[in-house]
Amino acid sequence: MGFTAGIVGLPNVGKSTIFNALASAHAPMGAYPFTTIDPNRGVVTVPDPRLGRISELLGKADPIPTHIEFFDVAGLVEGASKGEGLGNTFLGHIRSVEALIHVVRCFESADAQHVLGAVDPGRDIEIINTELLLADLQLLDKGRSQMEKKAKAGDREAAAGIQTLAAMTEHLNAGRLLRSFEMNDAARELVREYGLITAKPVLYVVNLGEEGCPPELLDRVQRLAEGEGARVVPISGKLEEEISELAPEEKKEYLEAMGLERSGLERLVESAYRLLDLITFYTITTDLQAWTVRRGSTAPQAAGRIHSDFERGFIRAEVFHFDDLIKAGSDHHVREMGLLRTEGKGYVVQDGDIIHFLFNV
What we know:
By secondary structure, this protein is an alpha/beta fold. It has 14 helices and eleven strands. The strands form three sheets. The protein has a six-stranded mixed sheet with strand order 2-3-1-4-5-6, sandwiched between helices. A three-stranded antiparallel sheet has the order 10-9-11.
């Protein structure tokens, strides 16, 4: 299992082009707004060289990688929070995702004019962030009315929630996104309950076009992202879409000819994976499969990613690390060398752990 990310941005910035390259999904594209009415969905595997090595050493064919699920929604426009351009519908599509991929256009094109005329990535980022902020304010305003009714009826939790909600509203009214709000348990619960968009981590993808991007424009995006604590990945959407359609060997040759070790999309996927501070562990009881959990997850929580029964009936976990397997050369030698450990409920799963869960429901 992986995680979900929603691709956002203004119309005609190359969102669907980048989505096509990611998922080889061939989503509809056009030089006019709202080509994407319903969200397109694509599942992309996370590059993982360790998976191939484990497969070789343990003789496990057809390993199952972990993945990212991308949702490409229609371009947002100024006024989206008030319903302009079906904005309320499109904003609703991204409330359930775990992270945002914000595509920013940094190129000129006679074939696809920018919806606002001149290319200005800083202005575009501000427009999208303002609409997301206003949308969150609307939700908090509705939530406040509901909480006040509960508080009047004697609900103490609602009374405490009003204070947290008021602090978050004040933060947004100051023009600050909730990503910079100091979260406590009550705030995190509100974020989860309402699907507050500006609390989600964001990765800015700068679409360079085919001719590249003026350095000053890319620098401006990077400065804005640094101010938010966000990441930036510059790629050429059109070029990546063409590369994605090549056979693996042709793709490798093409990248080598360009002097590149990895495609921009591989960098994008890896950056998106790191965005939520995720790690990968593996199971080999039947198939070899990679799984995703947040860093700091305990063994029962990791077991729950496989099946809720595994977490509910967790007894213990038998664990060895990828590095142990490389050192030993086989799972048999892992055991002989005393590298296999038994861990309990308090064990914090490490990136690269290979785990066999024992449970009883």
